[in-house]
């Protein structure tokens, strides 16, 4: 029971620390005539972090698809020790005049380490956005859910010296968190300056992490 509780809580901590939602800051009003979107972003999300994002724009007759890859790193550690990598897609499903509805889904690989253990988890994120989009600016509301499914634990020798029963390996830990955010941006030709403000909740809205709010700024380049 202790092992299950330990894995569950540790997996939830990973999810809370690294779940950014990267709340979808795409100006759908500008994507009809471009093929690519590159994004850099930074902000406060339990720690100061920065990230890179690339999306490929696929214009269909009714639906615009945007497959993407996204990677982010917390500051202060050697780049690559901790990371959050996503691969997935966004889609603008329908619109009414300047009001548009979209969704996103992705597979997520995260790695976090501390003096006691290195943890690598696999999970997923999904969500939807509804907003008002013009060529010069936009604003939307986002709701996303992030889930951690399995986590690999590699304990340090220091930890094993104090807890001889610690075992490395993959453990199932079904945990989730929810992200509510407001996103906006101002557009100038091929560039978008973006801002996200969000609230993070965990485990079916029952609790909040110690720092439940986050803020992110970003810059999109369309080409």
Automatic annotation (TrEMBL):
Annotated signal peptide: 1-23
Record keywords, A-Z: Signal
Superkingdom of origin organism: Bacteria
Protein name: Outer membrane protein beta-barrel domain-containing protein
Organism the protein comes from: Algoriphagus lacus
